[in-house]
Amino acid sequence: MRHTSAIDGSPPVTPNLVRPKEIPGARQVGRNTIETLLFRGLSTPIALLLVVVQSRFLEPEGRGTFVLAVVTVTIVSRLLGQLGFAVTNRLREGEADVRALVQRALASALLFGSIGMLVVVGWSAITGDIDAGTAAIAAIGLIPNVVWQSVSGVLLGLARVRFWNYVQLLSPVATLAGMLVLVVALDGGVRAALVAWAAANALTAAFALAGTRDLWLPLRLPVFDRHARSLLQLALVLGAVQVVNLVSYRIELFILRAFESLDDVGVYSIAMQAAESMWLLPAAIATAVTAPAVHATEEDAAGLIAHAVGRSLLLTAGVAVVVGLAAPFVIPLVLGEEFSGAAWPLVLLLPGIVAYAPVTILTVYLSLRRGRPRLSLAVSVLSLLVTTAGSLLLIPELGRRGAAISSTLGYVAGGLLAWIFFVRLAGLGPTGRRRVSLG
Where do the domains of the chain lie? Predict the structure, then answer.
């Protein structure tokens, strides 16, 4: 998972950024959360409309192919797209040369993104689920995706949340516009849908770079020195967390494909996407607390995170109840009877979705505040292992429902481990309250 408006509260951006006395975004946490939710309120219906367009015009098999192609690209993008968050971590240092850090991050995005494109096409050729031409079209969107994701990470570290929100909103809007033209009007099929997705990433990257030109211009030839290597090393660890997270979120898709048809993948992906859309609430909160949590004192940062976790659980649980009651009626009405089989998997996913909701917030503390991304990686690995084991046991017998149950078990395990790491590092009790000394 980058959002809302704290431009007014952002620190001065100069080649040698001195840590400001006022913590970036500290006074705008509530405003940034609400503003991010408003932007998400715009982007979520767009994302759902994209699902409707894909479902109606690509049908289950085409939808399954599209999802597998985009997931393959996104896995590589997640590995490389954390360069901006690595820059954010470095902002805690006394004299951070922001422009030099951003330029190194963008140069790494271009270099390793090019390698990643070859990996995407090669992996698709090995697995055989997607033909090489389709994979190549999807791979075109990789570099621009990594670029705008990297810029987004820097924006959060500087509490420039409003522009971050503009960047996040542009991607689905541009994708929808492209699909309405290429898929709906011109009946272009799966490849046309991927062209629309890749073009939307390119447009979003251009917009993000134009809006942050004060952070990377004037250009200097980036030097791959120890600072660049340190930045890349941290980014790759953070990226590994995201990759394992994504694979953990999606591993049941691939196992489901091994035992069932692409139709089943397409139907289950509806349940999965609808369930994960509820994470917009904790994502908005995480966005708002990122800069304050990175720059605040340890005690204030821990208290801020603990409070944010409680809010995210309550909000997500409330939405889950509504979604669970409405799903059996809304899904066939909106998407058609051929997707009605997504209703029960969605209901079975909801407990796990609620349990895992705070992990996005806890990762801000573990990875960015405390610089311990390996703890976040452990959370993701545990979730992945539990989901994989459950999928191999349950999908052959229960199909899509087995995939949903397995995913929920993985989410619950990961959420619990993330909370244990947090309270131990922060010196809090099991409930997230500070221990009271009796001495």
Answer: 7-426
Residue 3 per-residue DSSP state: -
Phi, psi (5° rounding) for residue 259? -105, -25
**What end-to-end distance do the CA atoms of the chain give, in Å?**
43
* The two three-digit tokens of residue 138, written as one number: 């999807």
Q: Are 305 and 366 in contact (CB under 8 A)?
A: no
CB 354 within 8 A of CB 275: no
Is 2 a residue whose pLDDT tops 50?
no
Identify residue 388 by its one-letter amino acid code.
T
Mind listing the pLDDT tens digit for each residue in 238-262? 888 777 776 776 788 878 878 877 7
Sign of CA dihedral 79, 80, 85, 89: positive
Estimate the crossing angle of helix 226-259 against helix 98-127, to 10 degrees: 30
CA distance 232 to 215: 18
DSSP secondary structure string for all residues of 334-403: HH-GGGGGGHHHHHHHHHHHHHHTTHHHHHIIIIIIS--HHHHHHHHHHHHHHHHHHHHHHHHHHTHHHH
Q: pLDDT tens across 53-71, in order?
A: 887 888 777 888 888 889 8
Contact in structure between 80 and 87 (CB atoms under 8 Å) = no
Give yes or no for residue 143 having a pLDDT over 90. Answer: yes
Helices (H), strands (E): how many in the chain?
16, 2
Closest CA to 170 of 146, 212, 203, 211: 203
Distance, CA of 194 to CA of 65 (rounded, Å): 10
